[in-house]
Amino acid sequence: MMRDGYVVAWQGREYDASPDGDNVRIYHTDPVDGFDEVRPGRYVRVLTPEEYDELIYVRTTCTWRGAPFIVLAEADSWLRVEYAGGRSPIARQLGLEEFDFGVYQGWAPLHEVSDLSEQRI
Predict the structure, then answer these.
(1) Domain of life here (predicted)?
(2) Rounded to the nearest 5°, which phi and psi values hold at 3?
């Protein structure tokens, strides 16, 4: 599983999370006590800082064609990656598209990627 976003530890389990001021919203895909349905297959619960154990940012990183990347998404056997090397000429040599000013992204075949790991920030 490729993760890029906030995660909160609550009652011995990690949940996808969204900070909301001092509170944090956590999500579940099934109906669970204490969670409210916001749309089919999406349930939310708001926690106060006293209720959760830890709020962290999780990011998946990898190396592709010798350069460092952040993994944004996965589709079939491809990864959507964002160049993390900070050098525009190299990003262009790698054939990446400029998604925003100085932000280069592309699709990498999973079999070409190495050093796939999850970073907890």
Answers:
(1) Bacteria
(2) -120, 145
